[in-house]
Amino acid sequence: MLERIPAGDSNKLIARVLDVSPHTVKRHATSILEKLALATRGQASGWLRENARG
Q1: How confident is the model over 1-39, as pLDDT tens digits?
Q2: Is 46 left (phi over 0), alpha (psi -120 to 50) or beta?
Q3: Confidence label for 52 from pLDDT (cuts 50, 70 and 90)
Q4: Looking at domain 2-51, which of 3.30.470.20, 3.30.230.10, 3.40.50.2020, 1.10.10.10 is its CATH number?
Q5: With a threshold of 0.90, does the pTM exceed it?
Q6: DSSP of 10-23
């Protein structure tokens, strides 16, 4: 799911792709931000660019 955030996908679009509810996406996105100690999806995008392998 984290890969979809830098692409600018909305929770609704991510939910469709993953076949889950938008609420589930929102909760997972919030959890990811908390675990990475980030405040915004933009920061998560930057984190992914810096830490992506391959």
Answers
A1: 777 877 889 999 999 999 999 999 999 999 999 999 999
A2: alpha
A3: confident
A4: 1.10.10.10
A5: no
A6: -HHHHHHHHTS-HH
